[in-house]
Amino acid sequence: MIAYIQKVAASRDISREIPVHALIETHGALHDAYEIAALPWVQVLDFGLMDFVSGHHGAIPATAMRSPGQFEHRLLARAKAEVVAAALAHGVVPAHNVTLDLKNTETTFADASRARNEFGFMRMWSIYPTQIQAIVDAMKPNYHEVTDASNILLAAQAAGWGPIQYDGELHDRATYRYFWEVLQKAKLTRVEIPAQADAAFFS
Fold first, then answer.
1. Residue 152: which residues within 8 A CB-CB, separation 6 or more?
2. Does 140 score more than 90 pLDDT?
């Protein structure tokens, strides 16, 4: 399919990369997730919960298509963790499956929070307009973490990016990379960044 897309793009004189989303929802796709994530033009690995459950021929109960089962059933937890690991190993985005409860934003928020904080998913699909803001709110960094990130990076900058101590803990280039991504996500999701850090890193 990617070869076909590339061929059509070339025939239309389109030189840019066309982002491809690969849906991981079968035993075979999960088995090959690392190889799929490594393919050219793949930007996102999406986990397909309902088809994955159906493909287990009753071994996974229908209750696992919603929370808490979708996060706690061992086969599903393993599959989600594998999809995220494969995606991140190849620099592509892992995207979580939909929430079946269309109109309960609290359920959507809770699912997105667990997907982000327990499994490492960076995005999540929505299938109803009211789900969108709940997903964005759950996926963005919280203000406390943004404040810590700002303070740590400002101290690191003042120390010439050498190791520092912050709140009794050691920080160095490894944690600086993490906290820099926190600030980038905060900027993209419009979480308030302390003024000094905003001026130092984004002006």
1. 164, 166, 171, 175, 176, 179
2. yes
